[in-house]
Amino acid sequence: xxxxxxxxxxxxxxxxxxxxxxxxxxxxxxxxxxxxxxxxxxxxxxxxxxxxxxxxxxxxxxxxxxxxxxxxxxxxxxxxxxxxxxxxxxxxxxxxxxxxxxxxxxxxxxxxxxxxxxxxxxxxxxxxxxxxxxxxxxxxxxxxxxxxxxxxxxxxxxxxxxxxxxxxxxxxxxxxxxxxxxxxxxxxxxxxxxxxxxxxxxxxxxxxxxxxxxxxxxxxxxxxxxxxxxxxxxxxxxxxxxxxxxxxxxxxxxx
Length: 255
Ligand SMILES: O=C1O[C@H](COP(=O)(O)O)[C@@H](O)[C@H](O)[C@H]1O
Known about the structure:
This protein is an alpha/beta fold. The chain has a single domain (2-244), classed as Rossmann fold, CATH 3.40.50.1360. Helices cover 27% and strands 18% of the residues. The strands form 2 sheets. It has a 7-stranded mixed β-sheet. Strands 5-8-7 form a 3-stranded antiparallel β-sheet. Helix 1 (14-36) crosses helix 2 and helix 2 runs parallel beside helix 3. The protein is globular, with a radius of gyration of 17 Å. The N and C termini lie close together (9 Å). It binds the ligand O=C1O[C@H](COP(=O)(O)O)[C@@H](O)[C@H](O)[C@H]1O. Ligand LXAUTJHC binds at residues 44-49, 76, 78, 88, 152, 154, 160-161, 184.
């Protein structure tokens, strides 16, 4: 199925979606490493992102990825103290990162709220932007050309921490910004901006379950970008919507 340049793949249920996406990601990252020596992935938080990481951890193929040559970044983070169970980093560690031999220097965590940027989300965002720019290798986008950037889709169509009608969505210069008064807790967050997301080679959006069906239908119906952030993201070479049957159930029927 294709919707305005996007590919839409539908899996039977949430578990099948997580397993199939894990295998797809292993193949994509291993291929990048065969070609270039290294690979990069941008992780998402949320239920589907964590289910994917769990499926990666339990895949028999997982060591086709050379974990020591993988750069791991985040698309957004909840601005909370280090180790807080609601931080996307904490959840990713539990689901996958603590069980694979990653190079600690290649795990690029967004700063917590209790470190050197205590309580200052703007300073934390700037620090992450600096880290991205240092790894960009001359890319004018000031971020690396990520091989795969993963995004969960919220029930309101938010992706990363870009919420409908929020100021962060209008950002055209900075690659990372602080988000304040987010409609989903916690209210303070850090997020990649649209220009940073659109610098990725491939963007993969994940959605499963009935509470995502309206968001998926809206985002793929050609809405305004401020109204539906999920409609505003795309990869340079590929934009892939990876859904389960329930999340896809309100899309228009195709022949
Ligand atoms: O808060 C967040 O939510 C979104 C979507 O999460 P889900 O549980 O509704 O799938 C997630 O993509 C984002 O990274 C996270 O910070």
